[in-house]
Amino acid sequence: MTVTTMSSRELNQDVSRAKKAAKTGPVLITDRGKPSHVLLSIEAYQRLTGQRRSIADALAMTDHADVAFDPPRVEIGTRPADLL
Fold first, then answer.
1. Average pLDDT of the segment spanning 32-53
2. How much is the average pLDDT of 26-44?
3. 39-70 exposure pattern, b = at least 16 Cβ within 10 A, e = fewer
4. What's the chain's Rg over C-alpha atoms?
5. Domain for residue 22, yes or no?
6. Could you tell me the CA-to-CA distances from 11 to 36, 61, 73 in Å, in that order?
7. Domain for residue 59, yes or no?
8. What is the pTM assigned to this prediction?
9. What is the C-alpha to C-alpha distance for residues 47 and 81, in angstroms, rounded to an integer?
10. Does pLDDT of 75 surpass 80?
């Protein structure tokens, strides 16, 4: 994990660089030389906060390669209705 440090001015001038750096580790943003904020990828944030991804979120992803989903086959039998 690489920690990248950027000033607020650098962040404002090159947001795409900050977003790219956040993919490999946190981006420490400084304001007047002092740490003020941290930019994280959504995956890092979810790991940090312990949030789980819902099945709906997992299915909505464009790349399903990392989702293992192999539900067991269910056999549903029928029986006569008791109308009395």
1. 88
2. 94
3. bebeebeeeeeeeeeeeeeeeeeeeeeeeeee
4. 23
5. yes
6. 12, 28, 51
7. no
8. 0.58
9. 50
10. yes
